[in-house]
Every structure is written in C-alpha cells, then in structure tokens.
C-alpha cells in the first residue's frame, strides 16, 4: 500500500502536487525532480485500486522528520486514504514529525488543521514563514504542527534552523542564501 516512489511515477506525483498546492507552496517541476537525488528526501506513494492515489514527501532532518508535501488525488479524498498514509508514516519512525499548515483563516485550512489534530499533531503558535520556493516569490506566513507534543521555543528554533538550511537552503532569517 505505502512504498517508495519509483522515478517513473514522478509525473503522476507532481500532477497531484499541482492539483493540491498553490504555485507558491511548491517548486517548479525541474527543481522538484532534482530533489530526488537528495539522500534525506523521500517520497512515498500509496496505491488505491491499482492507481497512484497519493504521496507523502518528507525530509529526514537531524532532530525531526519534516513532511514537505502530503496529498491525495482529489478524486480519492474523504475515503480514509490520507489517514492511512499518515498513520503508516508516523508508525514507521519514532522521531518527532513536523509540518507546515496555512493559518486557520479559511474553512479548508481549518479542516486540514483538524485532520492533523485528530492524528496526534499540535498546532504551535510561533511566528513562521515558509521561504520562497522559486525566484520571484515571497515568503508565506504559515504555522507549524508537530506530532506527539507542542515544540518548546528551543525545539522550534532548532527545527526552523534545520529546515531553512537543509530544505529551503536559506539562512535562519529565511531570506538570504545559506
């Protein structure tokens, strides 16, 4: 059900990503494809009825696992596939998992936050901006959710420093190249 993505499946995964995330929250296709060569970047896929139904892209950081993108094919949503994928991912490793969510300002954002809360995540109240994913984009104000427990200020600073450096390749302020 849940397995590592084959390189031949990248186009399908990227199509789900395009349908699920605004342009500002995903890299251009070639930049995303280039990540497949990173040793700490992993994409797992889930099949549903013989078709690629969803994916979860994550980074192994020093102290955390970071879910960068997680999506289910729009035609297969609301049938428990996302829940099963997330549970499988969380059970595979005891490291704390961290992810970004939009602030609860829309119904969709509120539903997404509730989904993660039902799955053992805590919404942290720290100020956080996702650095730009491509040239010409601006940082995006997001919120951080963490599995198992809320992050204390030191853990949050550690997470932000790790994710800015390794995932976004920017300095701790999120704006200058690292």
Automatic annotation (TrEMBL):
Residues 1-141 form the N-acetyltransferase domain. InterPro entries: Acyl_CoA_acyltransferase (IPR016181), GNAT_dom (IPR000182). Keywords: Transferase. It comes from the Bacteria. One of its GO terms (molecular function) is acyltransferase activity, transferring groups other than amino-acyl groups. SUPFAM superfamilies: Acyl-CoA N-acyltransferases (Nat) (SSF55729). Pfam families: Acetyltransf_7 (PF13508). This is GNAT family N-acetyltransferase. It comes from Caproicibacterium amylolyticum. The lineage of its organism: Bacteria, Bacillati, Bacillota, Clostridia, Eubacteriales.
């Amino acid at each position: 059900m849940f397995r590592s993505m084959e390189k031949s499946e990248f186009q399908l995964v990227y199509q789900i990503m395009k349908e699920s995330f605004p342009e500002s929250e995903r890299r251009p296709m070639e930049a995303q494809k280039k990540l497949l060569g990173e040793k700490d970047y992993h994409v797992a896929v889930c099949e549903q009825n013989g078709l690629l139904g969803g994916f979860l892209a994550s980074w192994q950081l020093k102290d955390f696992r970071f879910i960068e993108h997680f999506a289910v094919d729009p035609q297969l949503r609301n049938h428990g596939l996302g829940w099963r994928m997330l549970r499988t991912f969380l059970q595979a490793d005891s490291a704390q998992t961290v992810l970004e969510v939009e602030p609860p300002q829309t119904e969709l954002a509120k539903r997404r936050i509730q989904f993660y809360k039902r799955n053992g995540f805590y919404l942290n109240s720290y100020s956080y901006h996702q650095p730009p994913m491509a040239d010409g984009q601006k940082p995006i104000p997001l919120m951080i959710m963490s599995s198992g427990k809320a992050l204390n200020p030191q853990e949050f600073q550690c997470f932000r420093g790790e994710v800015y450096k390794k995932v976004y390749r920017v300095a701790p302020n999120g704006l200058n190249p690292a």
